[in-house]
Amino acid sequence: MIQLKYSDEKSHKFYTLLIQQDLFGKWSLLRQWGRIGTKGQTQIDTFDSYEEARAVQDRLVKEKRRKGYSGCCT
User: Fold this and answer.
1) What is the pTM of this model?
2) Does an H or E element contain 63, and which?
3) Which domain holds residue 11?
4) Domain CATH for 14
């Protein structure tokens, strides 16, 4: 699981990513984001391989880090 956070004078946000395999052998990338202290929003994308899911996860983490998010894996 990757947990990222962003805080400045005006906002306090979180972004969480988790890759897991489903019962049918597909791979899901679960994304949750929103304001810290709220439930936020959730999106699940499904992929045929772990490598595809990991590539999308890596791209999203890179984008968020460019925007000032920090954090790491747990």
Assistant:
1) 0.89
2) helix 50-66
3) 2-68
4) 2.20.140.10
